[in-house]
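$ ./design --mode recover --in tokens.txt
reading tokens...
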């Protein structure tokens, strides 16, 4: 099976988020339903849509669809973030603080567990700061394949699309892997650095949610 990648347009944000939701809602650790216990309601969709729309004003983000080349049907999605310049540690801390403030100012929305989402974001930020500091990097923020289309190469296609750009830019690549993504990333040159320091049991979540921080070294272009 072969795949092609198309960039998400602004009028396709809901479609992109729906694919991501369907993939994550089916994961055994049920993390998606801890974050969004109400499921994909109109209000949840509006919240996700606004977050995606806001990030589109930053050209460092790339949202893409993975399509079956013969039918053009969407089978998966990916979101990459390319930080092409080094930041000082102060800039990293300031960015984290800005995100923290925005989360604190977020009005409650029924069906969304902002406390759990915030803990996850804090765990992500602290691990990334420890591992990368302010170093330029490519970050795989989301990789998701519709359950019915999994294990046919779509995830690898979305992964390779970003890695090719990371290599052209001479950037290391970083991500937090789920149990499903972990073997795929290992096959593509990522090494585990540590587990994400996340304790979902304090939110009453009965499933184990282990994620691994993984790093792939920058490729030297003249090799
Ligand atoms: C991770 C994910 C994107 C992989 O997508 P995919 O289209 O199935 O990936 P590919 O077909 O390109 O690659 C499959 C490889 O991934 C790994 N993999 C995929 N699903 C897996 C599963 N359920 N259990 C273990 N390994 C799995 C295997 O290494 C597999 O290779 P193999 O089929 O040769 O054994 C997909 O499983 C998914 O959307 N999962 C839910 C969301 C998620 O966890 N995303 C990753 C967040 S970091």
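writing sequence...
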């Amino acid at each position: 099976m072969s795949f092609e990648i198309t960039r998400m347009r602004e009028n396709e944000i809901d479609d992109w988020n729906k694919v991501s939701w369907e993939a994550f809602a089916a994961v055994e650790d049920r993390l998606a339903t801890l974050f969004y216990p109400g499921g994909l309601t109109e209000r949840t969709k509006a919240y996700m849509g606004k977050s995606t729309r806001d990030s589109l004003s930053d050209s460092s983000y790339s949202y893409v669809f993975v399509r079956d080349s013969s039918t053009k049907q969407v089978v998966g999605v990916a979101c990459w973030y390319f930080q092409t310049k080094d930041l000082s540690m102060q800039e990293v801390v300031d960015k984290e603080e800005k995100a923290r403030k925005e989360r604190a100012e977020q009005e409650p929305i029924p069906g969304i567990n902002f406390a759990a989402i915030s803990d996850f974001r804090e765990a992500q930020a602290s691990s990334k700061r420890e591992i990368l500091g302010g170093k330029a990097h490519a970050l795989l923020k989301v990789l998701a394949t519709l359950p019915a289309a999994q294990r046919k190469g779509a995830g690898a296609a979305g992964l390779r699309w970003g890695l090719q750009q990371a290599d052209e830019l001479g950037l290391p690549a970083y991500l937090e892997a789920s149990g499903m993504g972990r073997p795929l990333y290992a096959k593509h040159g990522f090494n585990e650095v540590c587990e994400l320091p996340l304790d979902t049991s304090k939110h009453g979540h009965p499933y184990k949610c282990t994620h691994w921080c993984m790093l792939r070294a920058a490729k030297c272009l003249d090799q």
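exit 0
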